[in-house]
Amino acid sequence: MTITKNLSDITNRIEKAAQQAQRDPHAITLLAVSKTWPAEKLRALAEAGQKHFGENYLQEALQKISALKSFDLIWHFIGPIQSNKTKDIAEQFSWVHSVDRLKIAQRLNAQRPSALPPLNICIQLNIDDETTKSGIKPDALLSFAQSLEPLDNLILRGIMVIPSNTDDPEQQRRSFQHALNHYQRLKDHYPNIDTLSMGMSKDMELAITHGSTIVRVGTALFGKRTTPKPTATVK
Length: 235
Ligand SMILES: *Cc1c(COP(=O)(O)O)cnc(C)c1O
Prior knowledge:
By secondary structure, this protein is an alpha/beta fold.
C-alpha cells in the first residue's frame, strides 16, 4: 500500500463522514501527523498536495521543516511544550495545538517574530479529566482563554482534545459531545474561533460527526509507528 493511496483513502473517509453529518467536507482539514517519520515520507504526501503536517518533537520537526522548505507547508506543533523549546516553535510553526500553560503562551507570544502573522493556537482541553494528561480542565477553559487576550502575537483559533484511549463507542461519543459543548461555550465568548482539533486514525468519523474541523491522522496515513518515543510513556 503506498502512502498516496492511504492519503486518498483518508480523504474519502473524511468526505463520506462529512456528507453523513451533512457538513461541507471542505470545512475539515486533514492534519498529517508525521512524528517519527523521515522527510522522504512527508515529501511523497507533499507532492500529492498535502499541506498541513503535525509534529510532536521539536528536533526532528526542525530537520523536516528545513528539508521540505520548497513546498510551502503549514506546520502544526501538537506535542507537549517545554519552555526552552518555545523560541523555535514560535519561529518555525504556524499553529500550536497544545497550549495549556500561560507561561508557555506568554513565551510564544514574546518570541513570535514580528515579520510573521500571529501564531494560531488551540487550547488543549483535558476533556476526560485524566490526571495523567496535559490540558486545561474544562471548568478553567474560559478563564484561561481570557488570560490569553493580551497576547497580540497569538490568535486563539479554538480547542484541541485527546480523549481517553478507549474502544467503547459510547464513551468516545460522550467525550466528543463534551468537547463540542465546550467548544460552543467558548465560541459564545469568542465568536471568531473556528477550530475544533479532534479525531485521530481510529475515530475520525465520529469526531467529524461531532463537529471536528481538524482531524489529526498519523497511523492511517504512514503506518504503525515503530520508533520508540523519546520519552517513556506510563501506561
Ligand atoms: C500521534 C498523535 C496523533 C495521531 O494519532 P494516530 O492514532 O497515529 O492517528 C494525533 N494527535 C496527537 C496529539 C498525537 O500525538
